[in-house]
Amino acid sequence: MLDERLVLSSNDVKKGLWHMFAAIFFFALTHASVKWLKHLHFTELVVFRAIISIFMCYWGIKAQKLSLWGSNKKDLILRGVFGTLALTCYFFSLQNMPLATAVTVQYLSPIFTIIVSMFILSEKVKPLQWLFFLMAFIGVVIIRQGTLNLEWTTLGVALLGSLGAGFAYTWVRKLRSTEHPLTIVFYFPLVTIPIIGPFAIYNWKTPALIDLPFILAIGVFTQLAQVQMTKALSFAQASDIGIMNYLGVIYAFLMGIFIFNETYTTMSLVGVMFIVFSVIFATQYGVKKHQKVKKI
Predict the structure, then answer these.
(1) Which residue has the higher pLDDT, 269 or 289?
(2) Are 79 and 175 contacting, i.e. CB atoms less than 8 angstroms apart?
(3) Residue 11 and residue 83: Cα distance in Å, rounded?
């Protein structure tokens, strides 16, 4: 007789993978918009994104008659803090590094997510999964070496953003059983605006009319991506779907080439292949791990 719990768990992982795929696509559109607006200060774009997000979340929460403030305010605020750190550092790196390089460094976050989840959520990672993560990390290193020699300060900020994302993803997992995804996302702009707002005012530059569609795109696409990512992490463990983030590197390479006229070396392409195969192997393993049949 099939263990129904295991079958349902396998279906949850598949749903999580699809939600994560959608999140990555929306994030890619956000990355391109931030890069396009590099003449505006990154803190200004972070605040614009937060303002749009807070209105979208409020509308969604009221439409679904959900709790606006949630039940676990401490962890919701912490998730907002980590998300603010991650996004601010990431927008900085997008404006100061080639698109694919910035995205590649950011997508070290699954490694940080796994490590943080081990201690915070007591999630277990199989040895074979660590091998897949190692493959992805090697791919990231190869891409970095083949694309650009980064300044240590810029690289440090990018890595700090990746670490912040790892903590933010882990806190989403921690909140999945008590909070709705929209409530979790709602706390991000609530925290971001008072923290980053003063820096944005200090560095303010009034956007041109042609900038407005891209600013709107940053808010809308990031909001959609956050909701999809939150749903993904509500269905599956971070160790099963976190590595899907590396697909964003592929999007970044394509956008960098066709939109921003960036060039990449053969070494960079080899790194991409490492990441692609690690994603394929890891996601398939994550699903099959939950498809083991047990008799009851």
Answers:
(1) 269
(2) yes
(3) 28
CB 61 within 8 A of CB 179: no
Both tokens of residue 295? 């008799």
Identify the domain containing residue 131 by its residue range: 4-289
Residues 144-164: tens digit of each pLDDT? 777 666 677 887 898 899 899
Domain for residue 60, yes or no?
yes
Answer whether 190's CB lies under 8 Å from 78's CB: no
- Report the 10 Å Cβ neighbour count for 37: 23
Based on the structure, what is the number of domains in the chain? Answer: 1
Structure-token pair, residue 92: 């900085």
What one-letter code names the amino acid at 214? F
The model's pTM is 0.78
Angle between helices 42-63 and 73-96 (to 10 degrees): 140
**Distance (Å, whole) CA 136 – CA 214:** 31
Please give the Cα distance from 137 to 107 (Å, whole number).
9
